[in-house]
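Standup notes, protein team

Yesterday: finished cleaning the Brevibacterium pityocampae set.
Today: Metallopeptidase family protein structure.
Blockers: none.

Input for Metallopeptidase family protein:
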Amino acid sequence: MEKIDDARFDALVDAAMADLPPGVEDFMDNVALFVEDEPPPETPDLLGVYDGIPLTERDGSWGFVPPDTIVLFKNPLIDFARDEEHLRAEIRITIVHEIAHHYGIDDDRLHELGWG
């Protein structure tokens, strides 16, 4: 697939967010979504990453912390996709996958559920 510009990629991210399954965002009041061109050099094929404290690991003392983050990596997602429709689907899958980590779901369970 050929490269697409930032504005078009952002539009695909917005469309994927609007198409999330019902209820997915219900407990995401302190999560920020970012897009970066490339993942860290040690993980060049990474499509996205969640960084934060999963809801399952928080206790009553949790608070006044920076937002959890989800980062999508634009160029690996584009390189992985066959066409724009496939890219939109992969963006959605990656967002759901990273949100699931926010909810405390690990990679093994995500693969079992088809969101790996």
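Follow-up from PR in the comments: The longest strand covers residues 31-36.
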